[in-house]
Amino acid sequence: RSPYPTPSSARVxxxxxxxxxxxxxxxxxNWRAFKALIAAQYSGAQVRVLSxxxxxxxxxxxxxxxxxxxxxxxxxxxxxxxDGFCVFExxxxxxxxxxxxxxxxxxxxxxxxxxxxxxxxxxxxPPASTWVFPTLGxxxxxxxxxxxxxxxxxxxxxxxxxxxxxxTFLVGERVTLADITVVCTLLWLYKQVTFIMNQVxxxxxxxxxxxxxxxxLRTWI
Length: 221
Hints:
By secondary structure, the protein is of the alpha+beta class. It has helices at 31-43, 65-70, 90-97, 100-103, 107-136, 143-164, 177-192, 196-199, 208-220; strands spanning 9-12, 23-25, 47-50, 78-80, 86-88.
């Protein structure tokens, strides 16, 4: 089963631990939304995805008074529970639809999960965006900034690779929100920068940082 919610209205999750009317508003191919969708698959939460007209039109629906009453920032992904509970920010949504195993079943594991989720936002997103956005036409290309971003990505992948050389998962012995968040944050690097293996990951083909997405998707599908 693909993590990419192509239909305008799709339901994720086998037998839900919550109601079937829980809704995730997003736009198609939003890697931030994938965090919640993958977490829901693992936890069994059922989530209906609204990502395209007529159900949801990004840039219009999220600016309406009705939407802003529920989500004042007007950001997506945004989540609405069947009980009226509303929350935005992708990490908060992923946390909400998760279970104890994904969040970390001990205080120590939970702290380490938060550590990697925070690391993804603070250390991976900035250089990944600087490198990838120009390839998508979202940002003007700046040669020096891109070279600096590549070096930072190299450092980050090296750090992750060293951590995973003796581990299968970032925290503990099973998938957690740490793995889900880091993989989703790296998604555009894997997907868009096709030469990453040559420019950044030379010699790492059999190492942990490149196994992690495969393990995550294999255990999810």
